[in-house]
Specification:
By secondary structure, this protein is of the alpha/beta class. It has twelve helices and 18 strands. The protein has a domain of 155 residues: Adenylosuccinate Synthetase, subunit A, domain 3 (Adenylosuccinate Synthetase, Chain A, domain 3), CATH 3.90.170.
Length: 419
């Protein structure tokens, strides 16, 4: 059975959680490779809504084994809270790589202080310490799960790192130092709680692959938030591309057979940064659900900025990720529109630029709306002709087939195209 990486093709919040949930029914192994509790997936099962931040959402299927890879950064308090909230047994089902790095209180503090100091140039981070933790990892000042669960190693690493962190807090921001003794006591206890879940994740996935078992690599955030190829500097601090799934889980690239790119039927982003097709004011009011919970960030609680579908952007991210199939989500949000605009090119440019995106002038193609509800549609044949045409336009522009269509937040509000 083929292993699949699910990635977001826009700025995150594309509905990956639901797509991952659908694929998890067939997968035995589900792996989260990067990011931290700055990401989120919302899953609706029956009348119950589940919110995930670091645990793979496929944990809802009793047969699955879920993995948090070495490429992630873990806030132990947040992770344990998420584990408790699930109210299901995670023994022999959730495994954490010893190579993952740990988010400490000083990371969260530095994150917020740095954002405040930037003023108008602030990126709009979640303030959860993810960036400073990744920065420490790259600077070789980090502390990993392997050290967290070993009290002696944890003490040694904190004693080595904290003097520099307190100097940074004092000299850059005029902030009082943090207590190493308090942090050690708290995190030594947290390490003991997480220790039963620490496992050789990399070897476990290698064996699963050799046995021909399906692995689902779960992406967090979106391609344009990638620290290297995203809309820098308004990006996250990890690799959000399909290649990041391989690097973050410690598996070879041959372990990924398919890349399923998830794209909303329009475009959104949370936080600051350029957004060529963004709508505002009267234009935004054309989206009937723009003020509802369906366009509020799972993790941040912030309202998302909304714009028309950007095909130039999607061509770029399809290239970066080697996308083999596409899932189009939230098609139902467009149900009430008379006309739908799609960005097909940028004036004066023939490709997505590395810089200057805030100056872009998008050029649009106008497509007819279908003016009827798609919320109960469960097959391609039931989809209104104008909606089928909209999907075909995406396929033709990207030269990649649309394999899955979602028309609502519920698990059953989606269908695979038989073709």
């Amino acid at each position: 059975m083929k292993s699949v990486a699910v990635i977001g093709m826009q700025w995150g919040d594309e509905g990956k959680g639901k797509v991952i949930d659908l694929l998890s029914e067939k997968a035995l192994h589900i792996a989260r490779a990067q990011g931290g509790n700055n990401a989120g997936h919302t899953i609706v099962v029956g009348n119950k809504e589940y919110r995930f931040h670091l645990i793979p959402s496929g944990i809802l299927y009793p047969k699955t084994k879920c993995y948090i890879g070495g490429g992630t950064v873990i806030d132990p308090t947040s992770l344990l809270s998420e584990m408790d909230a699930l109210q299901i047994s995670l023994k022999n089902r959730l495994f954490i790589s010893p190579y993952a790095h740990i988010v400490f209180p000083y990371h969260r503090l530095l994150d917020k202080l740095a954002e405040q100091a930037k003023g108008q140039a602030a990126v709009g981070t979640t303030g959860r310490g993810i960036g400073p933790c990744y920065a420490d990892k790259a600077a070789r000042n980090g502390i990993r799960v392997a050290e967290l669960v070993d009290g002696g190693l944890l003490r040694d690493r904190l004693e080595a790192v904290l003097p520099r962190k307190n100097e940074e807090l004092k000299k850059l921001y005029g902030h009082e130092p943090v207590s190493g003794a308090d942090i050690f006591r708290e995190y030594a206890t947290l390490g003991q709680k997480l220790a039963p879940f620490v496992a050789p994740v990399e070897e476990m996935l290698y064996v699963a692959r050799k046995q021909g078992e399906m692995i689902l690599f779960e992406g967090a955030q979106g391609a344009l938030l990638d620290v290297t190829f995203g809309t820098y500097p308004y990006v996250t601090s990890s690799c959000t591309l399909s290649g990041g799934a391989s690097a973050g889980m410690g598996v070879g690239p041959t372990a990924i057979d398919e890349v399923l790119g998830v794209a909303k039927a329009y475009t959104t982003r949370v936080g600051n940064g350029p957004f060529p097709t963004e709508l505002s004011g009267a234009e935004l009011s054309r989206f009937p659900d723009h003020n509802t919970s369906r366009e509020v960030g799972t993790t941040t609680g912030r309202k998302r900025r909304i714009g028309w579908l950007d095909l130039v952007l999607l061509k770029h991210t399809a290239c970066l990720n080697g996308v083999t199939k596409i899932a189009v989500t939230k098609l139902d949000i467009l149900d009430g529109l008379d006309e739908i605009l799609v960005c097909t090119k940028y004036t004066g440019l023939d490709r997505f630029p590395a810089t200057g995106l805030e100056k872009i002038k998008p050029e649009y193609k106008t497509l007819p709306g279908w003016k009827t509800s798609t919320k109960q549609v469960r097959s391609w044949k039931e989809l209104p002709k104008a909606a089928q045409h909209y999907v075909h336009c995406i396929e033709q522009a990207l030269e990649i087939p649309v394999a899955l269509i979602s028309v609502g937040p519920e698990r059953e509000s989606s269908f695979w195209r038989e073709a």
